[in-house]
Design brief:
Pfam families: NAD_binding_10. This is NAD(P)-binding protein. With 314 residues, the protein is an alpha/beta fold. It folds into two domains: 248 residues, NAD(P)-binding Rossmann-like Domain (Rossmann fold, 3-Layer(aba) Sandwich); 54 residues, no CATH class. Helix content is 39%, strand content 20%. Strand 1, helix 1 and strand 2 form a beta-alpha-beta unit. Helix 1 packs parallel to helix 2 and helix 3 packs across helix 4. The structure holds NADP nicotinamide-adenine-dinucleotide phosphate (NAP). The site of NADP nicotinamide-adenine-dinucleotide phosphate has 23 residues, from helix 1 and strand 7.
Length: 314
């Protein structure tokens, strides 16, 4: 099914405005902003503005907005931009992102989520990815020393997302963002960490990803490069060119925490859930599986409507 509607969280951001401009003539775009003062800028892109703050609104507020927009895809491109210190970075870049993940999970038909994260968002207690050069390692060190709080909370948001299985997601990991005009070419997938990328090109990649459900489960870097964006992205998706730790977790079920999986029988993601359990078992994680026959999504929250004991199968 082709995508008809998207919602952008952080709708007044520089990438978000570019993305809305690219897509608003083709599909319905709802841009979620913090202030009505941003409405004229949003309307000028062709999108519809809605006010909700990540710091003040609840996950249920976001769910309602996503459902009202019938969003097929939710894009998270918000960020504190380092304004307001550690507390705000935590609230927006991490807790705000998790709030949006919860909100997507609560939708009647959970959307696909595209998260704008950062290049080199990784667990540095583990060895650097094998494709990193000495220059990458040096650059990585400098980046984490320069903006440790930002990197810390970006990573926590990514880690939270990559264990989620109730909706499809893709992480976009841009290098240093530039306001130079987009060139339509880039290096995508598993890249160096030393280069920047124009915001125009990141917006272009997000617009392409809106129509790429096969990018689910991937965390894709984007930095400047010479390959046409369309073909670079296509190759990264088909080649599963994802950063190593995500690949281990998502593709091989390795490095995941102990898990208990509950699968509802009347959910279209049921087969994906079972396949995920199988993949975890092939890795080094052996989740406890509970499959509940004939019940819909979020059945456990329907007080008294389902007797769980009656529904448990192997
Ligand atoms: N800067 C870099 O080099 C770099 C590199 C890699 C990744 N990134 C990430 O890329 C993403 C997008 O970048 P960008 O340049 O488009 O960022 P941006 O222009 O700073 O946009 C971020 C948006 O988030 C919104 N926001 C902040 N707090 C909010 C809240 N409480 N509730 C709702 N929205 C809130 C801001 O709203 P207001 O307009 O009201 O302030 C702003 O519109 C960010 O997540 C950033 O961390 C940045």
């Amino acid at each position: 099914m082709s995508v008809r509607s998207i919602a952008i969280v952080g709708g007044h951001g520089q990438i978000a405005l570019r993305l809305a401009r690219l897509l608003a003539s083709k599909l319905s775009v709802t841009s979620i902003v913090r202030s009505e003062a941003h409405f004229p800028d949003i309307l000028a892109t062709g999108a519809s503005p809605v006010v909700l703050s990540l710091e003040d609104a609840s996950a249920a507020d976001f769910t309602r907005t996503f459902d009202e927009a019938s969003a097929d895809v939710v894009v998270f491109s918000a960020g504190s931009g380092g304004k307001g210190g550690e507390e705000r970075t935590k609230k927006v870049d991490y807790e705000g992102a998790v709030k949006v993940f919860d909100a997507v999970e609560g939708m009647k038909h959970p959307a696909r989520l595209l998260l704008v994260s950062s290049i080199d968002s990784r667990d540095r207690s583990k060895p650097a990815p094998a494709h990193y050069t000495e220059e990458d390692i040096e650059s990585s060190q400098k980046q984490w020393e320069w903006i440790p709080t930002y990197m810390h909370y970006k990573l926590l948001a990514d880690q939270n997302l990559w264990t989620r299985t109730t909706f499809p997601w893709t992480i976009v990991r841009p290098g240093l963002l530039l306001d130079t005009p987009g060139v339509g070419t880039a290096d995508v997938g598993r890249t160096c960490v030393t280069k920047g990328i124009a915001r125009d090109d990141v917006a272009h990649m997000l617009a392409l990803l809106v129509e790429r459900p096969d990018a689910a489960g991937l965390a894709l870097d984007i930095v400047s490069g010479n390959e046409l964006l369309e073909s670079a992205l296509d190759a990264a998706i088909k080649g599963r060119l994802t950063e190593v730790y995500y690949r281990d977790a998502v593709e091989h079920g390795k490095g995941l925490p102990e898990a208990r999986m509950a699968v509802a029988g009347l959910v279209f993601l049921k087969d994906s859930g079972m396949a995920y359990v199988e993949r975890m078992r092939q890795g080094n994680t052996n989740p406890e599986l509970k499959a509940y026959k004939g019940v819909p999504h979020q059945f456990a929250s329907f007080d008294g409507t389902v007797s769980l004991d009656d529904q448990v199968t192997d």
